[in-house]
Amino acid sequence: MKKTRFLSLLLTVLFTLTFAVAGLASTEDITGHWAEGTISEWINSGLIAGYPDGTFKPDNTITRAEFMVLVNRSMGYTASGEANFTDVKDTDWFSETVSTAVYAGYINGYPDGTMKPNAQISRQEVATIAAKIKNLEKDPLAADSFTDSAAIPDWSKGIVGAVAQAGFMKGYPDGSFMPLNNMTRAEAVITLNNLLVKEEPAEDSDLSVIDKAGVYGPEEGQRVLGYDVYIRADGVTLQNVRTTGNLIIDEQVGEGTVTLNNVTANNLYIRGGGIDSIHINGGSYNKIIVEKTASGNVRIVAVNVSGATVVISENAAGENIILEGDFESVEINAPDVTITTQGDTTIGTITVGAELTGTRLDLATGTTVDSLVLNSETIVNNDKNTVKKVTGDKVAESTIANKPATSGGGGGGGGITVPQVTAAEITVDDTAYDVEITAGKNGTVNFAALDPAAVLSRGKINVSRDCTLTLTVPANKFISYELDISQELTAGWNTLDVFEYLGALYPDGGLTLAKIKDVFGSSELIFEGTLVDSSERTSNVSLEVKLP
Questions:
Q1: N or C end: fewer C-beta atoms under 10 angstroms in the chain?
Q2: Would you say residue 406 lies in a domain?
Q3: pTM beyond 0.85, yes or no
Q4: Residue 261 in domain
Q5: DSSP conformation letters of 13-63
Q6: Is the pLDDT of residue 528 over 50?
Q7: Cα 305–Cα 307–Cα 308 angle in degrees, nearest 5
């Protein structure tokens, strides 16, 4: 494995050097091109290069692997992890590129285990990557400004609207967006350049990337920024700064320390640091999001931080996180996470997400937790009076050293049950197929014996009370990530929006079982879902569909 990894790295270096040398050529074919200025800047900065014959070919399409190279270079992503895909070998030049891209979290593979690195990348796929990098909220209404908005698939409409509204991508002169068009090299450069563009004048752009130790920001007053700030060095202190963008403590910090004094940002992303790491004094953040760090250990000290909500993201599996100070809430969404508290620490609510394993909470003397919600089996080491209340679906299965008298279960206790699915029905060729589906168990519908040309037209479910259903649709040939579809349900029978989504993929000729199998590349699909009522009581449901 080490030998093939080395060979892959060597091939990547050779590939990069080849194109860097090519970039020194004249690339006369960009003269007069609408993207000439930006392309020239990127060539001069070494972010992209031309071909050996001296051309750039700005209107040529770009593959998924080539686009990942540009994203990794421009965004400074260097760390990589395991990325196992059947069409990505250790000896491929793009092996490390794919590993870095997957580790950074902006792209995933397909359900069949492939990445399709040599396939052309579409405009809606690029929009998805841009939205992930910038953590944009979906904005489907903004996509209605395009003349072809009706042709934008439901799954990508909110994403396209978000990137358009943010100014990262634009439409064509005729007012269309063309989501299925393959991205050109020029369009790729412009889009990524837009992600890097700062909203302040050039003289004020020195805080966009902080890559040297030191103190940054004014001693008094407050400096207002309009862009993302990346901290990429040990020993950085950032003070008296407010930005409308995100603040990212990047992987280049390693096991070093970062101090934030009176800093306000949209979200704070923690991707670097060690056991003496992140000191947050004052300021405000929408969320403090802990992602995978190089060391796997990070300490967060928060003092006088307004609404300190810590979210342990899905890709932070195996992290050991030390908390000290005052926190409004802590959400754990990854397996094998250990939370340790130190000193006088106060936490409003700690929530352990569903279907996690290996969660451990070591709550020290002097720590106070108002509410502990256990939706997965958890080991809790705590002194008496540390935790005031324990609820959740997995209280009984958890090991709690000192369980408070007010502990309960079932997503909130009090004898009130969580919302349930009592029946389901799926119609194929005017025949209704009943599905037995209950919380915590797979409901199964078997179409394996049907004609592949049979048309699936409708799905319904019957719920026990008013609630919101969020259904996770697996990645497919149109999108490389899981899609969450949410809809409001009333007590009784409801139609399923997921069928509208699937139907939009093949609007002509009906949604046949063969088409569904073609989209998802599998004969057995599992749709995971959650039901949440107005009191935030939650139950989990899932539906398995077997296709011909």
A1: N
A2: no
A3: no
A4: yes
A5: HHHHHHHHHHTTS--GGGTT-TTHHHHHHHHHHTS----TTS---TTSB-B
A6: yes
A7: 65
